[in-house]
Amino acid sequence: MNIQETIRNQVTANSVVLYMKGTPQSPQCGFSSATVQILRACGVQDFSAVDVLADPEIRDGIKTYANWPTIPQLYIGGEFVGGADIVREMYQQGELQKLITSVVD
Q1: What is the domain count for the chain?
Q2: Domain housing 83
Q3: pLDDT tens digits for 14-33?
Q4: What CATH number does the domain containing 22 carry?
């Protein structure tokens, strides 16, 4: 299985997937930390987190998969949502909560 298939499997097998630097318990960058905090503020406690620092192949592959150059990257219901700034904006507008509710509930 190539890295793109691995990523596709991760994204489609889990309702919420966050590709981040570090782990939810120990984020290694402010943007990853902020995204975890937003997910928790939306009531999402259980989500799949993939530490891109632990796997250089995933780190490079995820940027190609979504055609998005930065980490973190959030996927909900198999679809790319965006990076930290987009997630924050969606949260502030109430859109992220609606999206999560439609997929997780």
Answers
A1: 1
A2: 3-104
A3: 999 999 999 999 999 999 99
A4: 3.40.30.10
